[in-house]
Protein backbone atom coordinates (compact mmCIF):
# COMPACT_ATOMS: atom_id res chain seq x y z
CA UNK A 1 0.00 0.00 0.00
CA UNK A 2 1.25 3.49 -0.83
CA UNK A 3 2.29 5.64 2.08
CA UNK A 4 -0.24 8.22 3.12
CA UNK A 5 0.68 11.90 2.71
CA UNK A 6 1.23 13.97 5.83
CA UNK A 7 0.30 17.65 5.80
CA UNK A 8 0.26 20.50 8.27
CA UNK A 9 -3.18 22.08 8.48
CA UNK A 10 -3.75 25.38 10.25
CA UNK A 11 -7.30 25.83 11.53
CA UNK A 12 -9.15 28.38 13.57
CA UNK A 13 -9.44 26.88 17.09
CA UNK A 14 -13.25 27.12 17.00
CA UNK A 15 -13.35 25.24 13.69
CA UNK A 16 -11.02 22.57 15.09
CA UNK A 17 -13.20 22.20 18.20
CA UNK A 18 -16.33 21.85 16.07
CA UNK A 19 -14.64 19.22 13.87
CA UNK A 20 -13.39 17.32 16.94
CA UNK A 21 -16.91 17.26 18.46
CA UNK A 22 -18.43 16.13 15.18
CA UNK A 23 -15.77 13.43 14.78
CA UNK A 24 -16.44 12.20 18.31
CA UNK A 25 -20.16 11.93 17.62
CA UNK A 26 -19.40 9.77 14.57
CA UNK A 27 -16.76 7.70 16.41
CA UNK A 28 -13.93 8.96 14.19
CA UNK A 29 -10.67 10.70 14.92
CA UNK A 30 -10.49 14.37 13.95
CA UNK A 31 -8.05 13.44 11.18
CA UNK A 32 -10.39 10.77 9.81
CA UNK A 33 -13.31 13.22 9.93
CA UNK A 34 -11.36 15.80 7.93
CA UNK A 35 -10.42 13.17 5.32
CA UNK A 36 -14.03 11.94 5.19
CA UNK A 37 -15.31 15.48 4.56
CA UNK A 38 -12.65 16.24 1.95
CA UNK A 39 -13.41 13.02 0.09
CA UNK A 40 -17.14 13.72 0.19
CA UNK A 41 -16.57 17.23 -1.20
CA UNK A 42 -14.35 15.85 -3.98
CA UNK A 43 -16.90 13.18 -4.84
CA UNK A 44 -19.86 15.57 -4.86
CA UNK A 45 -18.00 18.04 -7.09
CA UNK A 46 -16.94 15.30 -9.51
CA UNK A 47 -13.26 15.81 -8.68
CA UNK A 48 -12.46 12.53 -6.93
CA UNK A 49 -9.42 11.02 -8.68
CA UNK A 50 -10.05 7.62 -10.23
CA UNK A 51 -6.97 6.12 -8.58
CA UNK A 52 -7.95 7.22 -5.06
CA UNK A 53 -8.06 4.31 -2.64
CA UNK A 54 -10.90 3.81 -0.21
CA UNK A 55 -10.50 5.06 3.35
CA UNK A 56 -8.93 2.26 5.40
CA UNK A 57 -11.43 0.64 7.76
CA UNK A 58 -10.37 0.91 11.37
CA UNK A 59 -11.83 -0.25 14.67
CA UNK A 60 -13.59 -3.45 15.47
CA UNK A 61 -13.98 -5.97 12.69
CA UNK A 62 -17.55 -6.33 11.55
CA UNK A 63 -18.85 -9.74 12.49
CA UNK A 64 -22.13 -11.43 11.87
CA UNK A 65 -24.71 -10.49 14.46
CA UNK A 66 -26.80 -13.30 15.90
CA UNK A 67 -30.42 -13.46 14.79
CA UNK A 68 -33.28 -12.93 17.25
CA UNK A 69 -33.87 -16.69 17.49
CA UNK A 70 -30.18 -17.29 18.23
CA UNK A 71 -30.32 -14.68 20.98
CA UNK A 72 -33.35 -16.37 22.53
CA UNK A 73 -31.59 -19.75 22.43
CA UNK A 74 -28.54 -18.26 24.16
CA UNK A 75 -30.69 -16.65 26.84
CA UNK A 76 -32.53 -19.94 27.45
CA UNK A 77 -29.22 -21.81 27.76
CA UNK A 78 -27.79 -19.20 30.12
CA UNK A 79 -30.85 -19.33 32.36
CA UNK A 80 -30.73 -23.14 32.50
CA UNK A 81 -27.05 -23.07 33.51
CA UNK A 82 -27.65 -20.59 36.36
CA UNK A 83 -30.56 -22.51 37.91
How is this structure best described in words?
It is a single chain. The chain is an all-alpha fold and 83 residues long. It has a domain at 9-49. Helix content is 52%, strand content 0%. The protein is built from 3 helices and no strands. It has helices at 13-25, 30-44, 68-82.
Question: What structural keywords apply?
Answer:
Arc_rbn_hlx_hlx, extended, Toxin-antitoxin system HicB family antitoxin, mainly alpha, 83 residues
Strand and helix layout:
Blueprint: H1 13-25, H2 30-44, H3 68-82
Organism: Halostreptopolyspora alba
Protein name: Toxin-antitoxin system HicB family antitoxin
Region (Disordered): 45-83
Quick overview:
The chain contains three helices and no strands.
Provide the low-confidence segments as ranges.
none
Classification by helices and strands: mainly alpha
- DSSP helix fraction: 40-55%
Summarize model confidence as the mean pLDDT.
Answer: 82
Radius of gyration: 21 Å
What is the number of strand segments?
A: 0
Termini gap: 54 Å
N-to-C SSE series? HHH
Largest sheet: none
Amino acid sequence: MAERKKILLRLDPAVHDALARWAGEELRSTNAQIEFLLRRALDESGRMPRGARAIPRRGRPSGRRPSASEKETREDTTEDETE
